[in-house]
Design a protein that fits this description.
Blueprint (H helix, E strand, L loop, with lengths): L16 H6 L1 H7 L18 H13 L10 H6 L41 E4 L6 H14 L8 E3 L3 H8 L9 E6 L5 E14 L2 E13 L8 H14 L6 E5 L8 E9 L2 H6 L11 H7 L11 E3 L5 H11 L5 E3 L3 H8 L6 E7 L5 E14 L7 E12 L4 H14 L4 E5 L14 E12 L18
Parallel strand pairs: 5-6, 12-13
Antiparallel strand pairs: 1-3, 2-11, 3-4, 4-5, 4-9, 6-14, 7-13, 7-14, 8-10, 10-11, 11-12
Helix pairs in contact: 10-11
The structure holds coenzyme A (COA).
Protein backbone atom coordinates (compact mmCIF):
# COMPACT_ATOMS: atom_id res chain seq x y z
CA UNK A 1 0.00 0.00 0.00
CA UNK A 2 1.36 3.43 -0.92
CA UNK A 3 2.35 5.57 2.03
CA UNK A 4 0.52 8.84 2.52
CA UNK A 5 2.98 11.69 2.19
CA UNK A 6 1.13 14.95 2.23
CA UNK A 7 -2.24 16.41 2.99
CA UNK A 8 -4.87 18.26 1.11
CA UNK A 9 -2.70 21.38 0.80
CA UNK A 10 -5.22 23.40 -1.15
CA UNK A 11 -8.08 22.81 1.22
CA UNK A 12 -8.76 26.53 1.58
CA UNK A 13 -7.66 27.62 -1.90
CA UNK A 14 -10.02 30.15 -3.37
CA UNK A 15 -11.21 31.35 0.03
CA UNK A 16 -10.48 34.78 1.48
CA UNK A 17 -7.26 35.45 3.42
CA UNK A 18 -8.94 35.92 6.78
CA UNK A 19 -10.94 32.77 6.34
CA UNK A 20 -7.72 30.99 5.46
CA UNK A 21 -6.16 32.09 8.71
CA UNK A 22 -9.15 31.18 10.84
CA UNK A 23 -9.31 27.78 9.24
CA UNK A 24 -5.60 27.06 9.70
CA UNK A 25 -6.14 25.13 12.88
CA UNK A 26 -9.08 23.26 11.47
CA UNK A 27 -7.05 22.41 8.36
CA UNK A 28 -4.50 20.78 10.60
CA UNK A 29 -7.16 18.79 12.39
CA UNK A 30 -8.72 17.62 9.12
CA UNK A 31 -5.41 16.57 7.72
CA UNK A 32 -5.49 13.24 6.00
CA UNK A 33 -2.40 12.51 8.02
CA UNK A 34 0.96 11.64 6.61
CA UNK A 35 2.26 8.29 7.52
CA UNK A 36 5.04 7.39 9.93
CA UNK A 37 8.02 5.42 8.69
CA UNK A 38 6.10 2.16 8.21
CA UNK A 39 2.43 1.30 7.82
CA UNK A 40 1.90 -1.25 10.61
CA UNK A 41 -0.86 -2.93 8.63
CA UNK A 42 1.62 -3.75 5.90
CA UNK A 43 3.17 -6.21 8.32
CA UNK A 44 -0.13 -8.08 8.49
CA UNK A 45 -0.30 -8.50 4.75
CA UNK A 46 1.59 -11.75 4.63
CA UNK A 47 -0.59 -13.40 7.28
CA UNK A 48 -3.38 -15.80 6.27
CA UNK A 49 -6.92 -14.36 6.14
CA UNK A 50 -7.97 -16.27 9.26
CA UNK A 51 -5.10 -14.88 11.30
CA UNK A 52 -5.89 -11.37 10.09
CA UNK A 53 -9.48 -11.79 11.23
CA UNK A 54 -8.38 -12.91 14.67
CA UNK A 55 -6.16 -9.86 14.98
CA UNK A 56 -8.93 -7.57 13.76
CA UNK A 57 -11.25 -9.05 16.34
CA UNK A 58 -8.71 -8.45 19.08
CA UNK A 59 -8.10 -4.90 17.84
CA UNK A 60 -11.83 -4.29 17.86
CA UNK A 61 -12.12 -5.49 21.44
CA UNK A 62 -9.32 -3.23 22.61
CA UNK A 63 -10.10 -0.19 20.53
CA UNK A 64 -12.90 1.27 22.63
CA UNK A 65 -11.09 4.57 23.02
CA UNK A 66 -10.75 5.03 19.26
CA UNK A 67 -14.23 4.24 18.04
CA UNK A 68 -16.90 6.88 17.60
CA UNK A 69 -19.52 7.24 20.32
CA UNK A 70 -22.52 4.95 20.10
CA UNK A 71 -24.65 6.87 22.59
CA UNK A 72 -25.66 10.49 22.89
CA UNK A 73 -24.20 10.57 26.39
CA UNK A 74 -20.75 9.47 25.20
CA UNK A 75 -21.01 11.80 22.21
CA UNK A 76 -21.26 14.80 24.52
CA UNK A 77 -17.76 14.01 25.85
CA UNK A 78 -16.32 13.56 22.34
CA UNK A 79 -14.57 16.26 20.31
CA UNK A 80 -15.65 16.27 16.68
CA UNK A 81 -12.78 18.06 14.96
CA UNK A 82 -14.37 17.80 11.54
CA UNK A 83 -18.08 17.82 12.26
CA UNK A 84 -17.75 20.88 14.50
CA UNK A 85 -16.75 22.82 11.37
CA UNK A 86 -19.75 21.63 9.37
CA UNK A 87 -23.23 23.16 9.01
CA UNK A 88 -24.97 20.70 11.31
CA UNK A 89 -26.72 21.40 14.62
CA UNK A 90 -24.53 21.09 17.73
CA UNK A 91 -25.17 18.14 20.03
CA UNK A 92 -27.45 19.10 22.86
CA UNK A 93 -28.91 22.16 21.14
CA UNK A 94 -32.65 22.34 21.39
CA UNK A 95 -33.86 23.33 17.96
CA UNK A 96 -37.21 24.98 17.54
CA UNK A 97 -36.71 26.66 14.18
CA UNK A 98 -36.45 25.22 10.69
CA UNK A 99 -34.14 26.14 7.85
CA UNK A 100 -30.57 25.87 6.57
CA UNK A 101 -27.78 26.02 9.13
CA UNK A 102 -25.60 27.99 6.69
CA UNK A 103 -26.76 30.04 3.74
CA UNK A 104 -25.80 28.75 0.29
CA UNK A 105 -22.45 30.10 -0.87
CA UNK A 106 -22.59 32.48 -3.80
CA UNK A 107 -19.81 30.73 -5.66
CA UNK A 108 -18.87 27.11 -5.35
CA UNK A 109 -15.21 26.33 -5.70
CA UNK A 110 -14.29 24.87 -9.05
CA UNK A 111 -11.22 22.81 -8.22
CA UNK A 112 -11.52 19.49 -6.43
CA UNK A 113 -10.03 19.28 -2.95
CA UNK A 114 -6.46 18.06 -2.96
CA UNK A 115 -5.48 14.57 -2.02
CA UNK A 116 -2.12 13.51 -0.62
CA UNK A 117 0.53 12.74 -3.17
CA UNK A 118 0.05 9.29 -4.65
CA UNK A 119 -3.76 9.39 -4.55
CA UNK A 120 -6.28 10.69 -7.04
CA UNK A 121 -10.02 11.20 -7.38
CA UNK A 122 -11.98 8.87 -9.59
CA UNK A 123 -15.60 8.49 -10.63
CA UNK A 124 -16.02 4.73 -11.00
CA UNK A 125 -18.01 3.94 -14.13
CA UNK A 126 -20.70 1.59 -12.84
CA UNK A 127 -21.72 0.57 -16.34
CA UNK A 128 -18.39 -1.22 -16.65
CA UNK A 129 -18.69 -4.69 -15.04
CA UNK A 130 -15.03 -4.85 -13.88
CA UNK A 131 -15.31 -1.42 -12.26
CA UNK A 132 -18.59 -2.32 -10.58
CA UNK A 133 -16.98 -5.52 -9.32
CA UNK A 134 -14.05 -3.53 -7.97
CA UNK A 135 -16.38 -1.25 -6.02
CA UNK A 136 -18.28 -4.27 -4.79
CA UNK A 137 -15.03 -5.81 -3.55
CA UNK A 138 -13.99 -2.62 -1.75
CA UNK A 139 -17.32 -2.52 0.06
CA UNK A 140 -17.52 -6.23 0.79
CA UNK A 141 -14.01 -6.37 2.18
CA UNK A 142 -14.15 -3.14 4.16
CA UNK A 143 -17.75 -2.32 5.03
CA UNK A 144 -19.21 -2.65 8.52
CA UNK A 145 -18.94 -6.04 10.10
CA UNK A 146 -20.72 -7.22 13.16
CA UNK A 147 -18.84 -6.73 16.39
CA UNK A 148 -17.94 -10.39 16.54
CA UNK A 149 -16.41 -10.42 13.09
CA UNK A 150 -18.46 -13.49 12.18
CA UNK A 151 -20.44 -12.06 9.28
CA UNK A 152 -19.62 -9.56 6.58
CA UNK A 153 -21.66 -7.72 3.94
CA UNK A 154 -21.79 -9.39 0.57
CA UNK A 155 -23.39 -6.76 -1.66
CA UNK A 156 -24.33 -7.96 -5.12
CA UNK A 157 -23.59 -6.00 -8.29
CA UNK A 158 -27.34 -5.64 -8.92
CA UNK A 159 -27.88 -4.27 -5.44
CA UNK A 160 -25.21 -1.60 -5.94
CA UNK A 161 -26.73 -0.57 -9.27
CA UNK A 162 -30.16 -0.32 -7.67
CA UNK A 163 -28.88 1.72 -4.72
CA UNK A 164 -26.56 3.99 -6.70
CA UNK A 165 -28.41 4.59 -9.96
CA UNK A 166 -31.94 5.82 -9.25
CA UNK A 167 -33.52 8.26 -11.74
CA UNK A 168 -31.39 11.36 -12.32
CA UNK A 169 -28.27 9.94 -10.68
CA UNK A 170 -25.07 11.73 -11.58
CA UNK A 171 -21.77 9.98 -12.31
CA UNK A 172 -19.69 12.65 -10.53
CA UNK A 173 -21.56 11.87 -7.31
CA UNK A 174 -19.99 8.41 -7.25
CA UNK A 175 -16.72 9.47 -5.76
CA UNK A 176 -13.74 7.19 -5.40
CA UNK A 177 -10.13 7.55 -4.28
CA UNK A 178 -7.48 5.51 -6.05
CA UNK A 179 -3.82 4.84 -5.37
CA UNK A 180 -2.08 6.38 -8.37
CA UNK A 181 0.61 3.71 -8.61
CA UNK A 182 -1.53 0.59 -8.84
CA UNK A 183 -4.96 2.22 -9.44
CA UNK A 184 -6.42 0.39 -6.45
CA UNK A 185 -9.74 1.78 -5.23
CA UNK A 186 -9.27 2.61 -1.53
CA UNK A 187 -12.08 5.03 -0.68
CA UNK A 188 -15.63 5.71 -1.78
CA UNK A 189 -18.66 7.83 -1.01
CA UNK A 190 -21.81 8.42 -3.06
CA UNK A 191 -24.80 10.71 -3.26
CA UNK A 192 -28.06 10.10 -5.09
CA UNK A 193 -30.79 12.68 -5.69
CA UNK A 194 -33.93 12.66 -3.58
CA UNK A 195 -36.79 14.86 -2.54
CA UNK A 196 -38.30 14.74 0.92
CA UNK A 197 -40.86 16.50 3.02
CA UNK A 198 -39.34 17.68 6.33
CA UNK A 199 -42.22 18.81 8.53
CA UNK A 200 -43.99 21.08 6.01
CA UNK A 201 -40.97 21.89 3.84
CA UNK A 202 -40.43 20.14 0.53
CA UNK A 203 -36.72 19.85 -0.05
CA UNK A 204 -34.58 18.60 -2.92
CA UNK A 205 -31.42 17.13 -1.50
CA UNK A 206 -29.14 14.14 -1.81
CA UNK A 207 -28.97 10.92 0.07
CA UNK A 208 -25.38 10.05 0.99
CA UNK A 209 -24.42 6.40 1.08
CA UNK A 210 -21.64 3.83 1.00
CA UNK A 211 -18.99 5.89 2.76
CA UNK A 212 -16.08 3.50 2.95
CA UNK A 213 -12.35 3.76 3.58
CA UNK A 214 -10.04 0.81 3.05
CA UNK A 215 -9.13 -0.83 6.36
CA UNK A 216 -5.46 -0.05 5.88
CA UNK A 217 -6.13 3.66 5.52
CA UNK A 218 -8.37 4.11 8.53
CA UNK A 219 -7.97 6.88 11.11
CA UNK A 220 -5.99 9.01 8.68
CA UNK A 221 -8.83 11.50 8.15
CA UNK A 222 -9.68 10.50 4.62
CA UNK A 223 -13.39 10.74 5.54
CA UNK A 224 -13.48 14.54 5.97
CA UNK A 225 -11.82 14.95 2.56
CA UNK A 226 -14.34 12.60 0.93
CA UNK A 227 -17.24 14.44 2.55
CA UNK A 228 -15.91 17.89 1.59
CA UNK A 229 -15.34 16.89 -2.03
CA UNK A 230 -18.75 15.26 -2.34
CA UNK A 231 -20.35 18.34 -0.77
CA UNK A 232 -18.59 20.53 -3.34
CA UNK A 233 -19.87 18.38 -6.19
CA UNK A 234 -23.40 18.43 -4.80
CA UNK A 235 -23.23 22.22 -4.26
CA UNK A 236 -22.17 22.59 -7.89
CA UNK A 237 -25.59 21.27 -8.86
CA UNK A 238 -27.31 23.85 -6.66
CA UNK A 239 -28.16 21.47 -3.79
CA UNK A 240 -27.13 22.32 -0.23
CA UNK A 241 -28.80 19.67 1.93
CA UNK A 242 -28.19 15.97 2.43
CA UNK A 243 -29.60 13.13 4.47
CA UNK A 244 -27.76 10.07 5.68
CA UNK A 245 -27.78 7.45 8.39
CA UNK A 246 -25.01 6.03 10.55
CA UNK A 247 -24.66 3.55 13.37
CA UNK A 248 -22.53 6.01 15.34
CA UNK A 249 -23.48 9.27 16.98
CA UNK A 250 -22.37 12.35 15.07
CA UNK A 251 -23.62 15.91 15.47
CA UNK A 252 -26.65 15.68 15.51
CA UNK A 253 -29.14 12.85 15.10
CA UNK A 254 -32.51 14.01 13.83
CA UNK A 255 -33.90 10.72 15.06
CA UNK A 256 -32.37 7.61 16.62
CA UNK A 257 -33.96 4.32 15.71
CA UNK A 258 -33.45 0.70 16.68
CA UNK A 259 -33.01 -2.25 14.39
CA UNK A 260 -35.27 -5.24 15.07
CA UNK A 261 -34.78 -8.80 13.82
CA UNK A 262 -37.28 -11.53 13.02
CA UNK A 263 -35.69 -14.96 12.52
CA UNK A 264 -37.06 -16.87 9.53
CA UNK A 265 -34.52 -19.66 9.66
CA UNK A 266 -33.74 -19.90 13.40
CA UNK A 267 -31.73 -23.10 13.05
CA UNK A 268 -29.22 -21.47 10.73
CA UNK A 269 -29.08 -18.27 12.77
CA UNK A 270 -28.32 -20.22 15.91
CA UNK A 271 -25.70 -22.29 14.11
CA UNK A 272 -23.87 -19.20 12.84
CA UNK A 273 -24.26 -17.55 16.25
CA UNK A 274 -26.05 -14.59 14.71
CA UNK A 275 -25.59 -11.59 17.01
CA UNK A 276 -28.66 -10.31 18.82
CA UNK A 277 -30.71 -13.52 18.86
CA UNK A 278 -32.91 -14.22 21.86
CA UNK A 279 -30.53 -15.79 24.35
CA UNK A 280 -31.30 -18.83 26.48
CA UNK A 281 -33.54 -20.46 23.93
CA UNK A 282 -32.95 -24.04 22.93
CA UNK A 283 -33.07 -24.93 19.24
CA UNK A 284 -36.38 -26.75 19.68
CA UNK A 285 -37.92 -23.83 21.50
CA UNK A 286 -36.59 -21.34 18.94
CA UNK A 287 -38.04 -23.38 16.07
CA UNK A 288 -41.43 -23.53 17.76
CA UNK A 289 -41.39 -19.89 18.84
CA UNK A 290 -40.58 -18.61 15.35
CA UNK A 291 -42.90 -20.94 13.44
CA UNK A 292 -44.88 -19.23 10.70
CA UNK A 293 -48.02 -20.17 8.75
CA UNK A 294 -47.34 -22.08 5.55
CA UNK A 295 -49.44 -19.80 3.33
CA UNK A 296 -50.43 -16.14 3.23
CA UNK A 297 -53.85 -14.92 4.41
CA UNK A 298 -54.43 -11.41 3.08
CA UNK A 299 -56.93 -11.41 0.22
CA UNK A 300 -55.63 -9.77 -2.94
CA UNK A 301 -51.96 -9.90 -1.96
CA UNK A 302 -49.74 -10.28 -5.01
CA UNK A 303 -46.38 -9.33 -6.48
CA UNK A 304 -46.06 -5.75 -7.73
CA UNK A 305 -46.03 -5.11 -11.47
CA UNK A 306 -45.08 -1.90 -13.31
CA UNK A 307 -48.73 -0.83 -13.68
CA UNK A 308 -49.06 -0.67 -9.88
CA UNK A 309 -46.70 2.32 -9.62
CA UNK A 310 -49.46 5.02 -9.68
CA UNK A 311 -51.46 3.14 -7.01
CA UNK A 312 -48.37 2.82 -4.81
CA UNK A 313 -47.63 6.51 -5.27
CA UNK A 314 -51.16 7.35 -4.03
CA UNK A 315 -50.67 5.14 -0.97
CA UNK A 316 -47.37 6.87 -0.21
CA UNK A 317 -48.98 10.28 -0.57
CA UNK A 318 -51.87 9.32 1.71
CA UNK A 319 -49.45 8.01 4.30
CA UNK A 320 -47.27 11.12 4.27
CA UNK A 321 -49.28 13.27 6.67
CA UNK A 322 -48.48 10.86 9.54
CA UNK A 323 -44.75 11.60 9.45
CA UNK A 324 -42.41 14.55 9.88
CA UNK A 325 -39.91 13.14 7.37
CA UNK A 326 -41.22 11.40 4.29
CA UNK A 327 -40.20 10.73 0.69
CA UNK A 328 -41.58 12.67 -2.26
CA UNK A 329 -41.21 10.28 -5.16
CA UNK A 330 -41.93 10.62 -8.85
CA UNK A 331 -43.63 7.79 -10.71
CA UNK A 332 -40.28 6.89 -12.22
CA UNK A 333 -38.72 6.74 -8.74
CA UNK A 334 -41.53 4.51 -7.45
CA UNK A 335 -40.78 2.14 -10.30
CA UNK A 336 -37.07 2.26 -9.56
CA UNK A 337 -37.26 1.75 -5.80
CA UNK A 338 -40.22 -0.64 -5.68
CA UNK A 339 -40.36 -2.82 -8.80
CA UNK A 340 -39.17 -6.31 -7.85
CA UNK A 341 -35.79 -7.22 -9.20
CA UNK A 342 -33.56 -10.22 -8.94
CA UNK A 343 -31.26 -9.95 -5.92
CA UNK A 344 -32.41 -6.42 -5.15
CA UNK A 345 -35.88 -5.99 -3.77
CA UNK A 346 -39.37 -7.48 -3.51
CA UNK A 347 -42.63 -5.60 -3.40
CA UNK A 348 -46.15 -6.91 -2.85
CA UNK A 349 -49.40 -5.02 -3.15
CA UNK A 350 -52.91 -5.66 -1.84
CA UNK A 351 -55.48 -5.26 -4.58
CA UNK A 352 -59.15 -4.94 -3.66
CA UNK A 353 -62.00 -6.06 -5.91
CA UNK A 354 -62.21 -3.34 -8.52
CA UNK A 355 -58.47 -2.96 -8.79
CA UNK A 356 -57.78 -0.33 -6.09
CA UNK A 357 -54.53 -0.83 -4.18
CA UNK A 358 -55.00 -0.68 -0.41
CA UNK A 359 -51.62 -1.93 0.71
CA UNK A 360 -47.97 -2.12 -0.22
CA UNK A 361 -45.02 -3.78 1.42
CA UNK A 362 -41.49 -3.73 0.12
CA UNK A 363 -38.20 -5.12 1.32
CA UNK A 364 -34.72 -5.09 -0.11
CA UNK A 365 -32.24 -7.88 0.29
CA UNK A 366 -28.64 -7.99 1.38
CA UNK A 367 -26.52 -11.09 1.61
CA UNK A 368 -23.80 -11.68 4.15
CA UNK A 369 -20.75 -13.86 4.07
CA UNK A 370 -20.46 -16.09 7.10
CA UNK A 371 -16.81 -16.23 8.11
CA UNK A 372 -15.02 -19.22 9.53
CA UNK A 373 -18.01 -21.55 9.73
CA UNK A 374 -17.65 -25.23 8.87
CA UNK A 375 -21.10 -25.50 7.23
CA UNK A 376 -22.60 -22.12 6.42
CA UNK A 377 -21.02 -19.64 4.05
CA UNK A 378 -23.78 -17.11 3.53
CA UNK A 379 -26.86 -15.57 5.05
CA UNK A 380 -29.71 -13.73 3.34
CA UNK A 381 -31.37 -10.82 5.10
CA UNK A 382 -34.48 -8.94 4.00
CA UNK A 383 -34.75 -5.31 5.17
CA UNK A 384 -38.18 -3.75 5.42
CA UNK A 385 -38.20 -0.74 3.11
CA UNK A 386 -41.79 0.47 3.16
CA UNK A 387 -45.15 -0.75 4.39
CA UNK A 388 -48.49 1.04 4.22
CA UNK A 389 -52.01 -0.22 4.36
CA UNK A 390 -55.41 1.44 4.39
CA UNK A 391 -57.63 -1.63 4.73
CA UNK A 392 -55.66 -4.56 6.18
CA UNK A 393 -54.08 -4.41 9.64
CA UNK A 394 -50.32 -3.80 9.29
CA UNK A 395 -49.61 -6.83 11.49
CA UNK A 396 -51.57 -9.10 9.13
CA UNK A 397 -49.81 -7.75 6.07
CA UNK A 398 -46.46 -8.10 7.80
CA UNK A 399 -47.14 -11.66 8.92
CA UNK A 400 -47.75 -12.54 5.27
CA UNK A 401 -44.55 -10.69 4.37
CA UNK A 402 -42.65 -12.94 6.78
CA UNK A 403 -44.22 -16.00 5.15
CA UNK A 404 -43.24 -14.74 1.68
CA UNK A 405 -39.71 -13.80 2.71
CA UNK A 406 -39.20 -17.21 4.28
CA UNK A 407 -40.53 -18.96 1.19
CA UNK A 408 -38.00 -16.98 -0.88
CA UNK A 409 -35.15 -18.35 1.20
CA UNK A 410 -34.41 -15.37 3.45
CA UNK A 411 -32.95 -16.27 6.83
CA UNK A 412 -33.99 -13.13 8.69
CA UNK A 413 -36.15 -10.06 8.24
CA UNK A 414 -34.88 -6.80 9.72
CA UNK A 415 -36.95 -3.70 10.38
CA UNK A 416 -36.44 -0.33 12.03
CA UNK A 417 -38.93 1.02 14.56
CA UNK A 418 -39.76 3.85 12.13
CA UNK A 419 -43.18 4.64 10.63
CA UNK A 420 -45.97 2.57 12.19
CA UNK A 421 -43.71 -0.43 12.63
CA UNK A 422 -44.02 -0.62 16.43
CA UNK A 423 -47.63 -1.70 15.87
CA UNK A 424 -46.42 -5.14 14.72
CA UNK A 425 -42.79 -5.63 15.83
CA UNK A 426 -43.39 -7.33 19.18
CA UNK A 427 -46.61 -8.99 18.08
CA UNK A 428 -44.78 -10.73 15.24
CA UNK A 429 -41.84 -11.77 17.45
CA UNK A 430 -39.22 -9.36 16.22
CA UNK A 431 -36.46 -8.83 18.80
CA UNK A 432 -34.75 -5.53 19.35
CA UNK A 433 -31.03 -5.62 18.58
CA UNK A 434 -28.36 -3.39 20.06
CA UNK A 435 -27.87 -1.75 16.64
CA UNK A 436 -29.00 1.84 16.40
CA UNK A 437 -29.55 3.71 13.17
CA UNK A 438 -29.25 7.47 13.52
CA UNK A 439 -30.81 9.71 10.88
CA UNK A 440 -29.01 12.95 9.97
CA UNK A 441 -29.65 16.03 7.87
CA UNK A 442 -26.75 18.09 6.56
CA UNK A 443 -27.24 21.85 6.56
CA UNK A 444 -30.81 21.69 7.79
CA UNK A 445 -32.10 22.30 11.28
CA UNK A 446 -35.49 21.38 12.58
CA UNK A 447 -36.90 19.92 15.78
CA UNK A 448 -35.76 16.36 16.48
CA UNK A 449 -38.30 13.61 15.93
CA UNK A 450 -39.17 10.24 17.46
CA UNK A 451 -38.70 7.16 15.22
CA UNK A 452 -42.44 6.80 14.59
CA UNK A 453 -42.36 10.20 12.87
CA UNK A 454 -39.70 9.06 10.43
CA UNK A 455 -41.48 7.98 7.26
CA UNK A 456 -38.62 6.58 5.23
CA UNK A 457 -35.85 4.02 5.25
CA UNK A 458 -32.55 4.75 3.52
CA UNK A 459 -31.09 1.61 2.02
CA UNK A 460 -27.29 1.52 2.43
C1 LIG B 1 -16.70 5.10 8.37
C2 LIG B 1 -15.25 5.18 7.92
C3 LIG B 1 -15.19 5.67 6.50
C4 LIG B 1 -14.51 6.16 8.84
O1 LIG B 1 -13.16 6.13 8.51
P1 LIG B 1 -12.02 6.38 9.59
O2 LIG B 1 -10.75 6.06 8.93
O3 LIG B 1 -12.38 5.68 10.84
O4 LIG B 1 -12.13 7.93 9.92
P2 LIG B 1 -11.23 9.12 9.34
O5 LIG B 1 -9.95 9.21 10.08
O6 LIG B 1 -11.13 8.98 7.86
O7 LIG B 1 -12.15 10.38 9.65
C5 LIG B 1 -12.57 10.64 10.94
C6 LIG B 1 -13.73 11.59 10.87
O8 LIG B 1 -14.78 11.00 10.13
C7 LIG B 1 -15.97 11.03 10.88
N1 LIG B 1 -16.78 9.83 10.59
C8 LIG B 1 -16.50 8.56 10.92
N2 LIG B 1 -17.50 7.74 10.52
C9 LIG B 1 -18.41 8.54 9.91
C10 LIG B 1 -19.65 8.28 9.29
N3 LIG B 1 -20.17 7.03 9.22
N4 LIG B 1 -20.32 9.31 8.78
C11 LIG B 1 -19.82 10.55 8.84
N5 LIG B 1 -18.65 10.87 9.42
C12 LIG B 1 -17.94 9.86 9.96
C13 LIG B 1 -15.51 11.02 12.30
O9 LIG B 1 -16.49 11.54 13.16
C14 LIG B 1 -14.28 11.88 12.23
O10 LIG B 1 -14.62 13.25 12.27
P3 LIG B 1 -14.59 14.08 13.69
O11 LIG B 1 -13.18 14.45 13.93
O12 LIG B 1 -15.48 15.24 13.46
O13 LIG B 1 -15.11 13.14 14.74
C15 LIG B 1 -14.54 3.79 8.04
O14 LIG B 1 -14.54 3.41 9.37
C16 LIG B 1 -15.20 2.72 7.20
O15 LIG B 1 -15.00 2.64 6.01
N6 LIG B 1 -16.01 1.86 7.87
C17 LIG B 1 -16.71 0.80 7.20
C18 LIG B 1 -17.88 1.32 6.40
C19 LIG B 1 -18.83 2.13 7.24
O16 LIG B 1 -19.09 1.81 8.38
N7 LIG B 1 -19.36 3.21 6.63
C20 LIG B 1 -20.29 4.09 7.28
C21 LIG B 1 -21.65 3.63 7.06
S1 LIG B 1 -22.73 4.74 7.89
Amino acid sequence: MTDLKSFDKKLTDGESGSLKKSKKKQKKEDAWRSEGPRDPFAMLDSLPEKKQQEIQKALHLFSVGQSLPKTLQDAKQHTYHFWDTQPVPKLGDSIMTQGPVAEAEISVRNEPYSLPQGFSWDTPDLSSPPVLRELCNLLNENYIEDDDNTIRFDFSLEYLQWALQPPNWLPQWHLGVRVEGNKKLVGFIAAVPAEVCIYETKKRLVQVKFLCVHKKLRLKRMTPVLIRELTRRVNQQGLYQAMYTAGTVLPTPLSSCSLWHRPLNPRKLIEVNFPGLRQNMSLQRALKFNRLPKVTKVQGLRCMIKEDAPGILSLLQENRSKFHLSPLLSLQEVEHWFLPRESGNDTYVVEQDGGTLTGVVSFYSISFKVLNHPVHTSLRAAYLFYVASTATELAELMEDTLVLAKSKGFDILCALDVMDNTSFLEKLKFTISDKRVHYYLYNWMCPLMSPDKVGLVLPN
